[in-house]
Amino acid sequence: MSAPTLFDELFMRKLEQLSLAVRRIKRGHFKGERRSLRRGQAVEFADYRNYVQGDDLRALDWNIYARLERPFIKLFEEEVDQTVHLLLDASASMNWPLPAGLGQPLEQNKWYYGRRLVAALGYIALSNSDRLYVAGLAAEGYTPWGPERRRQSIHRLLSFLAGYPAAGTANLSSILSYYAQKAKRPGLLFLISDFLAPDDYQAGLSALQSQGHEVAVLHLLSPDEIEPAFSGDFQLQDVETGLKRDLTINAVMKKLYRQHFTAWQEGIQQFCQRRNINYALVSTKQPFEELLLYYLRQRGFVR
Fold first, then answer.
1. Residues 192, 278: Cα–Cα separation, whole Å
2. Whole-model pTM?
3. Could you tell me the mean pLDDT of each successive run of 10 residues in the chain, 303 residues long?
4. Are residues 215 and 275 in the same domain?
C-alpha cells in the first residue's frame, strides 16, 4: 500500500489544514502546535488578570501599570503536545467484502478503507506535531507502531499498514483492556472497528477511559452489512470462526436482520453516549474525501 493508492498530494494538503478535535487537553512534555486551556509561561498572549500578592513580578505588564497605575498579570496560552492513539481492528471480518465479492470495488473493502482512515488521521496528527501511536488489534493482541511526531513519518506508517494483514479473531474487550494497561501516555484515542467480535466491547472501552484516554469510536461497516441487497439460498460461513449456516434470504429474513442490526448498532451508540464517547457509524460506501472533510468535521472528530 503506497501513498498514491491512499490519497493524492492535493488531498494531503487538505488534510494539513485539519486537526483532530480534542475535548480536553492533556499536558505533554514537549512544545507542540496545540494550545491548552491552562494558563502558563509561553509566547502567545491570552489575557490579563489582577495582580495578587505572591504573583511573579516578572509577569507584570509594566506598560499597563504606567498607564492605569494598577498592576495586571499577563496570561499566556501554553503550547503542549497532544498524544494520539489510532487503534484499528485487524480481525478477519474487516477484510470484507472481498474485491471480487458482490461486485463491490476495493474502495468498499473495510480493511482497505480502515487502513486509509488510519493513514489520514495519522497524517493529520503528524502535521500538527502530535505524538502518534498506532496499533493493529488482532487475535494475539496488538502490534504497535510509534511513537512518531514528524510529518515525514507518514511513509513509515504507510509501510506498516501495507504489511499488516487482517486475520483471526479479535477479542475486543480483552485487547482494549490490555492496551489500556500498557499504553503509558493517555490521550485522544480513536477505535476503528466493525465490532463483529465474539466478546463484549464495553469493559475494554471503559478500561481505556479509566486510564485517562479520551475515546472516539468509528464504527466501520460495508453497505451490504448495513442493508443486505442479495436474496436467495446461501450457505454463509463466518470468516473468523469457520461456522457455516444455510439460509434463505427473503423479504421476511431481511426485515428480521434489519431489526437485529438496528438493536445491535444502537446499543453500541447508546453505550458510547452514556460514557461520553464520540461515536459515528461509517459506511465504506461513503466517498472517502467527503468522510474526512465534511462528515467527521460535522460529527466533531476533526476540525
1. 12
2. 0.80
3. 63 92 60 49 60 69 84 63 93 83 73 96 94 91 91 93 87 93 94 89 95 96 88 68 73 87 96 96 96 95 94
4. yes
